[in-house]
Automatic annotation (TrEMBL):
Pfam families reported in the protein's UniProt record: HTH_18
Protein name: DNA gyrase inhibitor
InterPro entries, alphabetized: Homeodomain-like_sf, HTH_AraC
Organism the protein comes from: Cesiribacter andamanensis AMV16
Domain HTH araC/xylS-type: 78-179
Keywords carried by this UniProt record: Transcription, Transcription regulation
GO molecular function terms noted in the UniProt entry: DNA-binding transcription factor activity; sequence-specific DNA binding
Top-level lineage group: Bacteria
Amino acid sequence: MNEEIVYIENMNSPRDILLVSQALELLGLRVKEVELGAASYYNPGGVIKKATIDKALEEMGFSLMDSEAKLFSEQVRSLVSVYIDNCLRQQQETSFETFLEDALKTPYLLICQRYLSITGQRLSIFLRRMKVERAKILLINSNFSQEEIALKLGFKTVKGLSRMFREVTGQSMSVYTGRELYAALPKVV
């Protein structure tokens, strides 16, 4: 009996994991593991077809994603991380768009359209969130000033990073840094 894996769109919470697991079991599949975006199972005798699984999941608001699409979205996410790492190590000479086009040998507009259709999220929003996550790490774990962090992440001024940081987190960089540093202090009883 071979293990099979399906990739599933629109899974966002632990409740979704439970729903998908129950749906697969109701179809007669032996569920090995379900996580956000994927499920592995054993299909005794291979009697349950993917179309049947897709139909059952669609009734609950989910849909199957082909493994090629999953691979593409993971590749793009990985390249976003590489691009940000390159920015942090040295000033990145090329724009994000050019970097992605060169890496994937595909026009940037097509990359964005495909990423949106697979993940349901615009690539520019994912890039913003990743930059803010890196800024959070640098604010707490480095001696870089806000200006240095902004320049390292490809912003022309600290104002651009500050605006994006506030949009994503709902708080200023100074407030975030203060809260994180306060939380890290040992509690005195």
